[in-house]
Amino acid sequence: MPALFGFTNSEFDAVERLISAERFSTYLGHAGGDKSKAFRLYIQNLRLSSSLFESIGGLEVALRNSVHITLTQAFRSDTWYDRVPFSWMHPETAALEKAKHQIRARKKQLVPGRVIAELTFGFWCGITRRQYSASLWIPHLHKAFPHQRLGRMEVQQSLNGIRELRNRIAHHECILHLDLAAEYAQIQETLRWICPITCSWFEAHSSFHSIWKSPLA
User: Fold this and answer.
1) How many domains does the chain have?
2) What distance in Å separates the CA atoms of residue 132 and residue 93, rounded to the nearest whole number?
3) In the prediction, which pLDDT does 123 show?
4) Chain centroid to CA 202: how far?
5) Which of 186, 199, 200, 182 shows the shortest CA–CA distance to 157?
6) For the chain, which ranges sit under pLDDT 50?
7) Cα(54)–Cα(203) distance, integer angstroms
8) CB neighbours (10 Å) of residue 50?
9) Residue 82 phi, psi (nearest 5)
10) Intra-chain end-to-end CA distance of the chain, in Å
11) What pLDDT sits at residue 216?
12) Taking a C-beta distance cutoff of 8 angstroms, is the pair 85, 135 a contact?
């Protein structure tokens, strides 16, 4: 293999061993068996994953705060998650209990801001499920997406797709086989449903397109 990043072949063997042969084989497949290109693709995957994770993080913060503002007004309480006039399903109940437990474990006060920040992306996806349509989506939750007239299923599908991408990135999986430009566009579009100005701000500082369009080093 030609010299790459200033490393020798034996040094790259050490890197490959810790990446694992199974994981690295995915990149070798994308590189047509060219080991030098496979290492470059691995770094490209890291950079693209990082840039997409930043965008997803921006969406997640905007999403949870928009929902929090909307449901605080709807139920006249910033602890709306404890005061909704219906029973949460098991996944949402478990997410709330886990969030509160983690805050208590850090010996912090159980204030709404901490609970909202501790809840997972899965919780925010879960509250768009069909079982909450009549009790939550129709009367209140749709207002968290004020810049587009949307159906519950459209929001649910978008959030679940973004969550799946987020989980792939969080588990350090290869995402090069995905249509990443479309994935990025969906993240931005979902954020635009919440606030076009916030979307434009995040997009102006995103590194995704510069990495996506850049040739392999």
Assistant:
1) 1
2) 13
3) 98
4) 14
5) 186
6) none
7) 10
8) 13
9) -100, -5
10) 15
11) 74
12) yes
- Sequence-ordered list of residues with C-beta below 8 angstroms from that of 151, at least 6 positions apart, any chain: none
Sign of the CA dihedral with 178 first, then 181, 186, and 187 last? positive
**Is 6 part of a structural domain of the chain?**
no
| Dist CA 100 CA 115 (whole Å) | 6
Amino acid at 16: E
Cα 26 to chain center, whole Å?
23
Residue 11: the pLDDT is 77
Which pLDDT value is given to residue 7?
Answer: 65
- Please give the Cα distance from 75 to 65 (Å, whole number): 15
pLDDT of residue 21: 87
**Could you tell me if residue 15 is inside a domain?**
no
Q: Which position has the token pair 């916030």?
A: 198
Q: Note whether residue 93 is domain-resident.
A: yes
pLDDT, position 6: 66
104, 110 Cβ separation under 8 angstroms: yes
Domain membership of residue 104 as a residue range: 49-213
In the beta sheet, which residues pair with residue 4?
Answer: 7
pLDDT at residue 121, as a whole number: 97
pLDDT digits (tens, 9 = 90+) for 55-97: 999 999 999 999 999 999 999 999 999 999 999 999 999 999 9
* 3-class SS string, 126-180: HCCCHHHHHHHHCCCHHHHCCCCCCCHHHHHHHHHHHHHHHHHHHCCCCCCCCCH
Residue 39 lies in a domain: no
Q: Which segments of 76-137 does DSSP mark as H helices, in order?
A: 90-105, 112-118, 121-126
Q: What residue type is assigned to position 66 of the chain?
A: S
Alpha carbon 169 to its chain centroid, in Å, reads 8
